[in-house]
Amino acid sequence: MKLWDISKIIYREILFKSIVETTVRKKPEDIVKSVNSYMWLNKIVVTVFICAMPIYVALNPSIFNCSIFLVYLLFMFVFFFLQIVTSFVSHSFDFLYLLPLSQRDISKIRMLTFLRIFDLPLLAVVLVSPLAFGLFVSPLSALWTLLGVITAELLAVAIVFRLARFFYSKIAYSTGGWKTLLRMFYMIAWSVSAFGFYFIAVFMTELPKIHVDLRGWDFVFPICFGYVMSGSLNSLALASSLAYLIFAVVLFNRTLPIVNERVVITTARTTSISIKRTHPIFGILKKDLKLISRSPAHSMLLLFPIIEGLIFVKDAIYSTSMIMIAIVLVVFVAYGVEREYTKILPIDFWTLTAGKTLLLVVVYVTSVVCATVVRSLIGVSFSPVGFAQIPSVVAMGVFVALIYDRLGVKRDIYTGMCFLILILIPCLILAYTPLVVGLIVGMVTNVNPIVTSFVIGLIELLTIVAIAEFSHN
Predict the structure, then answer these.
(1) Neighbouring residues of 127: CB distance < 8 A, sequence distance ≥ 6
(2) Engineered SS bond to 316: which of 84, 302, 383, 433, CB 3.0-4.6 Å?
């Protein structure tokens, strides 16, 4: 019990550091009081979100749905916990050696602190999933669901730790000269790994639409568990499921010793400092890109619009709508990165807003261009609908800048999820109003819907700019 209590203190310290990075307005004693509420509130949100999936799948227990559930479970654990696990990897436990604790006790404390990160969602899914399958499918399906969830969770915990360790050691502190190029290579490889499960899940959701036969694929994870969880038992799927369970246990056991290892970062040699002057707007853009690239969760969100645009690339309107949803998350990150610290600098509201909004435009235009290029390569005709939404993206940027300027910042997606929900609805309204109005006008009249969307976006932008200007006068 003593070690468990110590691990709780260390875990709260990790969360405290994460919250301190999000705001400079609060007093330290106020942040200490809010640590527990942040911790439980966000864990409950994540738990509810994850536990809703097995209930839905149990009501529709097909091989596809069961397989997709396990892949999404893997992705959710990687997505939601990568940031906090990276903080754990970078946390120093050296002060424990000053206490009357043995090496074994210190190792246990590190392990307990690590497990605290996942405790509630991990246990909730293990309990809810087999219970749902037991009630709506069969007791045998409940047993295999339990084994499938345990397999997915063991793989997820092992993978998220190894990704966090890789990010901290290879990406976050690789700078200067050729190391910058190496860092970019590592970032691409890391991002592909982090988004891999999402790619697989989206790909698998498309398989039923083209009537793909899964027979012959029952040895592949998670399809093998999809067979046994849905009640379609066969010897190959059963043997493959047990094999993957053993593999997950072995991988998890081999990861545990690494959790107790300290990551040693070799710092670069001290060199002369060179200061390059640039325009404030571009300086803000460069600063934000560097800071975001050192945060795993924020790096994932920055790449999310590009990924969404490529996944749904065949339909220009649908691809654009998915990019706009992802851009809302980028808005949340862009306006949170060191936003409070810039307030103490002699930078006016519009210069800071222009720098932040430029980041959104760069990410959005890059996503649309990538989707457009791929669309042309596969023979789909060009559509400018994505470019017509640029005014709406700028309007979102100015709107969120105004909200953050008045309410302050909670930029970490793990500790600021409730704040994200508050700005999500108005941002989605700004994003989708031009698209919806353009489509409706196009169906009722002969006016080009793309032109209508562009005009509505300009009206949104001018309105938000006028409100922001009025509030600062």
Answers:
(1) none
(2) 383
pLDDT in tens, 196-209: 555 555 555 555 55
Q: How confident is the model at residue 303 (pLDDT cuts 50, 70, 90)?
A: confident
- How many CB atoms are closer than 10 A to CB 125? 23
Residue type, 109: I
Backbone angles phi, psi at 273, to 5 degrees: -90, 130
- As given in the structure block, the two tokens for residue 454 are 């562009």
Distance of CA 221 to the CA centre of its chain: 23
162 closest CA partner among 154, 421, 448, 14: 154
| Nearest residue to 160 (alpha-carbon basis) of 80, 254, 66, 40 | 80
**Residues 386-390: contacts with CB under 8 Å, at least 24 apart:** 386/309, 386/316, 386/319, 386/320, 386/323, 388/434, 388/438, 388/450, 388/451, 388/453, 388/454, 388/457, 389/320, 389/324, 389/364, 389/431, 389/434, 389/435, 389/453, 389/457, 390/361, 390/364, 390/365, 390/457
Task: Report whether 52 contacts 178 (CB < 8 A).
Answer: no
- How is residue 238 written in tokens? 């059963």
Helix, strand, or coil (residue 137): coil
Instruction: Report the Cα 223 to chain-centroid distance in Å.
Output: 25
pLDDT digits (tens, 9 = 90+) for 130-188: 999 999 888 899 999 999 999 998 998 888 888 777 766 665 555 554 555 555 555 55
Q: Which residues contact 69 (CB under 8 A, 6 or more apart)?
A: 53, 54, 57
Measure the CA–CA gap between 263 and 286, rounded to whole angstroms: 28
Rounded Cα distance between 46 and 42, Å, is 6
Q: Where are the domains of the chain?
A: 1-274, 279-473
Tokens of 213: 């036969």
Q: How far apart are CA 384 and CA 309, in angstroms?
A: 14
- pLDDT over 60 at 212, yes or no: no
pTM above 0.85, yes or no: no
Q: Give the residue among 423, 412, 424 at the shortest CA–CA distance from 38.
A: 412
Q: Per-residue pLDDT averaged across 426-434, rounded?
A: 84
d(C-alpha 54, C-alpha 60), whole Å? 10
Can you tell me the mean pLDDT for 251-267?
72
Tokens standing for residue 165: 């360790």
CA 185 to chain centroid, in Å, comes to 20
